[in-house]
Amino acid sequence: MNPADVASGALQASTEVSFWHMFWQAHFVVKAVMIGLLAASVWSWAIIVNKFILLSNAKKSMDRFEESFWSGNSLEDLYQSLSNRPTTAMASLFVAAMREWKRSFTGAASSFMGLQARIEKVLDVSIAREVERLESQLLVLASVASAGPFVGLFGTVWGIMSSFRSIAASKNTSLAVVAPGIAEALFATAIGLFAAIPALIFYNILSGKVARSQARMESFADEFSSILSRQIDHHVANERDRAA
Amino acid sequence: MKFSATEPGMIVSGVAHTAMLLATLVAFSDAPKFQEAQESVPVEVVTDAQFNEIMRGEKTAKEMKPQPPRADKVADVEESKPEKVVNEAKVDTVAPPPKAPRQPDPGEDEKPVPLPPQRVAALPQPEPVKPEPVKPEPPLPPLPTPRPPLKAEPEKPEPPKEAEAIEPPKPPVRPREEPKKVEAPTPPKAPPKPREPPRPDPSQIAKLLEQKKAEDAPKPASKPKSGDESSDRPRPDPAAIAKLLSREASQQKPSTGRAINQTASIGTATANAPKMSPSLWGQLDGLLQDQYKQCWSYLGLSSGQRYIPQIKVEYNRTGALVGTPALLNPPSDPALRSLAESALRAVRRCDPLKIPAQYAPYFEQWRARILRFDPEEMQG
Q1: What is the value of ipTM here, to two decimals?
Q2: Are the beta carbons of B9 and A47 separated by less than 8 Å?
């Protein structure tokens, strides 16, 4: 697209100023920026929707699990019911810890030595896995939020640059000639802000939710490990009595 | 990103975006146009007096080319011209009154006045003398003289009937016809020549004569030594006198002409009318007072009350009254009415007031005045 074409296009387009025309008259770099930013906006909104669904599901499942956990039912039964199906969040922590516990007892040489440490490690790993699942793709939102305006600005600068070149080529500085080029250049920044602002807002909201879930899981892990520790000590005392 | 039922984000977001894009395409399909703004025009009210004081002139006026002043005579002493102002002051300076008629100065008058008659007497002389050197030419007309101007010269010699020198103006006209008569008989062989002499039209000849005169003009100074003119005593030179009288060139000299230039002036840079200085006001007041004193005759007894009739008058540019003079403070006491009447009478009697031309530029300022006729002051 040489400047002369841009100039003639701008002259023709001076009457038509719809968004479609603004997009269509733009330089291909500006077009690429606009398309990329629009895609980023679509993607970030998809992430936002998915994360909201995921987090609300996780919260519901955690509520449900805690309810059943503290209901006084046998942990053995709970483990039996949960271990068969894929679990989320707290339930997966419980399943992982119980599995480790079971392995230590069912083995031929049941070893209580270091079981406490092993359970803690398993809980930590499970927490890390769960948190990673919750906050995956939140970094995309952060990137869109921080880079979107810059990318849009780049498109704007490029568009203004090319429109100035077309001004120089057409040797006409009337506002009607200058305006369309600048409007389409500013359109790029508008799209960048359009993508970045929701991404920034929802990144903050979602990362807050993830942090709260993580804290809740960690507190559960601490409680559960203390329960298991008590059980371990109990067993150790029984063993000693039996031995003695 | 996978499109699954558990993660419907991509679909939801894609649909939402397309819907929004369509909505914007519909909503922003046409940009709203700005309303045409009506420009307001500032209006300025100019009073009558302000309008009369405007001196800016016409912008489209033809620019007058400065042409050298017409000179009929080469000056003996070069007159010192007013120096051109290089950097004109941008400040409001009072413009010198234009075309002020020269005030008769008793001291200066005596010398220049006698001059004119002398000059008239002196002028004719060059002609009688000139002929002598030129005379040889008439016999040789055919030889050189390719240019007609010279031909005019030979004509002059003939008129010099020395006796006729008394009549200075005539010679230029008469000689023209005579040369033909003289020439025709003497050189008959030259028929083409008679034709040529008639050709120079009277105006051309007159011009030539004038030129000649101008050339000769310096000579009068040397003439006296020839001794034939007893009346010629050393002529006092007006230019020299003027030079002596005013050592430094005046700022601007009023230019007088036969006709006033009618072309519109382009105006002054500051475009403000000159304002009268306090001293000018004082002079004008004195002038008016003198004139009215002569017109006012009041023989009344000064009563106990002090009454000064105030009369509002309006003049035009020549100093004549415009409208009727109005008494501003009619006296309550009938005894004083005669005083007021006399004042009004004085104003009417002095009607064409003599106002010197130097006040012409300030007309706007003295146009309307309130005259106070103080009987005590008049008597004193």
Answers
A1: 0.70
A2: yes
